[in-house]
Write a structure and sequence with these properties.
- The protein is mainly alpha-helical.
- It has one domain (5-162).
- It has seven helices and no strands.
- The chain has helices at residues 5-8, 12-33, 39-59, 74-93, 97-118, 125-131, 136-162.
- Helix 2 packs antiparallel against helix 3, helix 2 (12-33) crosses helix 5 and helix 3 (39-59) runs antiparallel to helix 4 (74-93).
- The longest helix has 27 residues, at 136-162.
- It is globular.
- The termini are far apart.
Length: 165
């Protein structure tokens, strides 16, 4: 028995969801920090877009936190991701690069960051894989790290905006 047994025994939708999220996380640095408009950035971007679409679409077949029928509040993030992918790609095609970048950064934070953090809530599969059967402490440590990173990002942005041009 391994720690990955919950994932190996999960439905295809869950396995596709996790695989897509993993691929999106791996591609994220390449898509966000690569010099823009080169072939590798575009290839990685299309792969990232496909992975994020797979994550969002597969989520509709995962009903662990259902509130209204088979859907829960986390499915709103999936709708946000699908809209953001469409709007971000459309902006890039029309040459509105700043709008494209804003959409993609928002998807990285909201679609991967927030939803990813929620996947580590205690008693969820990813929490059991990462932190064991009693993963509440691990989740709160992860939430604290995420809050500190976000606070650092906000402070850096504010400091950059105060600099004279």
């Amino acid at each position: 028995m391994t720690i990955f047994d919950p994932l190996f025994n999960a439905s295809f939708a869950v396995q596709l969801h996790v695989a897509g999220a993993f691929l999106a996380i791996v591609l994220l640095p390449l898509t966000l920090w690569r010099r823009r408009r080169d072939r590798l950035h575009r290839l990685a971007g299309y792969l990232w877009l496909s992975a994020m679409a797979a994550v969002a679409l597969s989520s509709f077949f995962i009903n662990g936190l259902a509130v209204v029928g088979p859907f829960g509040p986390i499915h709103l993030i999936s709708v946000y991701v699908l809209w953001g992918l469409f709007a971000g790609l459309r902006a890039a095609v029309h040459g509105r690069i700043q709008v494209h970048q804003d959409h993609m950064r928002g998807l990285a934070l909201g679609g991967l960051g927030v939803a990813g953090l929620l996947s580590f809530l205690p008693d969820r599969m990813m929490s059991r894989i990462a932190f064991g059967a009693h993963g509440a402490e691990g989740f709160w440590a992860l939430a604290l790290i995420a809050a500190l990173l976000l606070a650092g990002r906000i402070l850096r942005t504010k400091a950059a905006n105060r600099r004279p041009v």
